[in-house]
Specification:
11 strands; five-stranded mixed beta sheet; 23 helices; flat; alpha+beta
């Protein structure tokens, strides 16, 4: 007995060890497969990252030595072409026209409203304000040809100087030495190199000589072709050592470390595979290959329908593939989490073994697959669909009732014939059929008619607005099903009415809030204009009033612009310029815009950005507006002397931006309603927010296929923006 128990435990331990070894092999295979591009020689220098950087570097060299070769010697009038001036002028005119249309559209609605209400003073005031804005914007936008030329020249000169400065940087990790055979010149950022071949042999970590025949690199093919066209020859060189910090050398070492780790993993895979095979053979020799535990799990697992098991296996396998690719198991110091990760994988390996054993069991017993299919969800659905022809049942019932009713005529004729001919048999048949129809068919018809009348009465009650009326449901027939469906529709309608009432309430609040937010600065403007009409006011006081008017008019402009943009977003009449955008750069730009306000506030911003660059297919300008609105909200509504947490992270198929702050106001609103236009957490509306920031941000995110969620926990306000790849 003790020997059997000992063998049982030994078999269990050996099986568990095999499962863990298989789990380790599984993780190694996926880690190596997901990093196969690191296995070649010089993985970093063969990577797209380095080659794109080299391509960009060549573009700078070409621009400096060819495209802008004589830039400094050219007179200013030749540096800028008339085509460039014309293009710039057309862009300014288009921008001016678009802005004019926006101003005319914005003010037109309010001017018409004032005229319809007979308020000529307000209409005149709005007209003058509109004309002033149009004039101001025209003066800012319209430029002379000389001004446009000067602006373009300034940009070109700045670009040229930056280009020269970049190429003259002695600490640049990429060196170049190029001979121009057509011009007889040498372009290089190397000092005193007499023998370039010797320099490459003795001092280069990496070198690329161009041009080359049959050069087919997809990233650098254009560079090689350009060398041939320009009749250039030379080297791109990465030195062995460089003064100061070099991200390129850091990347080189990092790629090589991954390469070395992968070779160790491959050796470990061979070792683990050999050990697993050896252990399996020994278990078989010593009769320790006991899968009793696995079969016990299989018997319990067999109770789950076959199609559900197949679906779980498919989803679980997909999830484990993603898990194996994403987890960092081999590139970090050993911790307790490593045991949890390999155990999680071992559970999946055990699950696979259970499924393999189930397949073997179904192959062994021929009819078992058919039996399990009959118990599956899909087969049950198929059977129910084939048996549940409710319309066919109604059809047969109606035909039967019509047939029985139609037979009343012939039997009535038979009865009349029997009565007139004194034929008792005919009369008996006629009366018998009449009795059957009267006591069986007719009550059935009356019962269904009564049921139908109850349904009609119920629908009338519902149409009249009584949504609490319930149609009595009896039996399991088609009319009973109809009654149930109508009752369910009534419940849905009732919920819809409640939602409509809620929508009307929100609409009413919207009108009230719009009126309040627009009226407040407008009232101040009107009051101070009235004060300015007094000609005896001191000049200092006039200046003070003008400053106040400027602030209030700017405030009114912001409100109107936000309302206009929110309206466009809601209607979907927005054109998106989708492109590959660095979300990290956008967020940093938004934070930089508010740096002065952040410094002046009592808030402390804690920013956590996981990566230096995160690229997503987005509209850059619109996405920047999302970050701008959320950061602005945090500055306006945060409790003084608190922290604001900003984070940006990248996951498998999405990028997540989160901002959290402690609210200075009691957040007693419905989270779902905070996205409504002019809805604000500050219900007293004492702050300068328009109440449109979150509505605009959500519309922008939704239009780009993303998701903006708000979470409130006490005074903690948390906004989560998710962009999917």
């Amino acid at each position: 007995m003790d020997i059997k128990l000992k063998n049982k435990y030994s078999a269990g331990i050996a099986l568990l060890l095999c499962i863990y070894l298989l789990a380790l092999s599984y993780m190694i295979i996926f880690d190596v497969a997901s990093h196969e591009n690191y296995l070649g020689q010089n993985p970093y220098f063969n990577s797209s990252t380095f080659k794109n950087e080299l391509r960009h570097y060549f573009e700078q060299i070409k621009a400096s030595h060819i495209d802008h070769q004589n830039f400094r010697q050219l007179p200013d009038e030749e540096k800028v072409t008339m085509d460039e001036i014309t293009e710039q002028k057309e862009q300014l005119e288009a921008k001016l026209w678009e802005k004019e249309q926006e101003i005319l559209s914005t003010y037109g609605m309010y001017i018409n409203e004032a005229e319809n209400m007979g308020n000529k003073d307000r209409a005149q005031l709005l007209t003058e304000e509109r004309d002033a804005q149009l004039k101001e914007y025209r003066e800012k936008t319209i430029k002379t040809t000389d001004e446009i030329r000067e602006s373009i020249l300034l940009d070109k000169t700045k670009h040229y100087e930056e280009l020269k400065k970049s190429l003259s940087n002695k600490n640049d990790p990429i060196k170049y030495y190029i001979q121009d055979s057509e011009r007889g010149e040498i372009y290089s950022n190397l000092d005193d190199v007499k023998d370039i071949e010797q320099y490459v042999r003795e001092h280069s970590l990496y070198s690329l000589k161009l041009p080359q025949a049959n050069f087919r690199d997809p990233y650098l093919g254009w560079v090689n072709n350009s060398f041939q066209e320009l009749r250039w020859s030379g080297y791109f060189i990465v030195p062995l050592q460089i003064e100061g910090y070099s991200q390129l050398h850091v990347n080189y070492r990092y790629y090589n470390e991954i390469r070395e780790r992968l070779f160790i993993e491959i050796f470990l895979l061979i070792l683990v595979t050999g050990l697993t095979i050896f252990l399996f053979i020994q278990m078989k020799k010593k009769n320790l290959l006991d899968l009793t535990y696995v079969d016990q799990i299989g018997r319990f697992y067999r109770k789950v329908p076959l199609d559900i098991r197949a679906f779980i296996l498919f989803v679980y396998s997909l999830g484990m593939i993603g898990y194996a690719v994403e987890i960092s198991f081999f590139n970090s110091p050993f911790r307790l989490s490593h045991i949890l990760k390999i155990t999680f994988t071992a559970v999946y390996i055990l699950y696979l073994i259970v499924n393999i054993r189930e397949i073997q069991w179904m192959k062994k017993y021929k009819g078992e697959l058919k039996n399990q299919w009959h118990g599956s969800i899909l087969h049950r659905i198929k059977r129910l669909l084939s048996e549940s022809f409710v319309n066919r049942s109604i059809f047969f019932k109606v035909i039967l009732v019509l047939l029985l009713t139609a037979l009343l005529g012939p039997f009535a004729v038979i009865g009349l014939m029997g009565l007139s001919g004194h034929n008792g048999f005919f009369l008996l048949i006629s009366l018998g059929y009449a009795g059957i129809y009267l006591f069986m068919v007719f009550p059935y018809i009356l019962k269904n008619l009564a049921f139908l009348n109850r349904i009609l009465k119920g629908t009338d009650e519902m149409v009249s607005g009584n949504l609490n009326y319930v149609i009595e449901e009896k039996g399991n027939g088609a009319l009973a099903q109809l009654a149930r469906n109508i009752n369910n529709i009534k419940l849905g309608l009732k919920a819809s009415v409640e939602n409509q009432m809620k929508s009307e309430r929100l609409k009413s609040e919207l009108i009230t809030n719009v009126s309040h937010d627009l009226k407040t600065p407008l009232t101040s403007i009107i009051n101070y204009v009235d004060l300015l009409k007094n000609e005896e006011l001191p000049r200092e006081e006039i200046q003070n009033y003008v400053q106040i008017l400027d602030r209030k008019s700017q405030r009114l402009k912001v409100l109107i612009d936000d309302l206009f943009e929110a309206s466009k977003m809601a209607s979907g009449a927005v054109e998106l310029n989708m492109e590959k955008v660095d979300v990290v750069a956008l967020l940093n730009q938004a934070l930089a815009e508010y740096d002065e306000k952040i410094q002046q506030s009592t808030l402390t911003f804690k920013v956590n950005i996981e990566k230096q660059k995160i690229f997503v297919q987005l509209d850059g300008k619109k996405t920047w507006r999302v970050f701008d609105n959320l950061i602005s909200n945090a500055l306006k509504y945060s409790q003084p002397n608190t922290r604001v947490y900003v984070s940006l992270s990248e996951e498998a198929n999405k990028t997540v931006f989160t901002i959290k702050n402690i609210s200075a106001y009691e957040m007693d609103f419905d989270v779902d309603e905070i996205f409504e236009r002019f809805k604000r957490g500050d219900t007293s509306r004492n702050t300068e927010g328009s109440g449109l920031g979150l509505a605009i941000a959500k519309s922008i995110v939704d239009l780009q296929g993303g998701q903006l969620d708000i979470q409130v926990d006490g005074d903690l306000f948390k906004a989560i923006v998710t962009f999917y790849k």
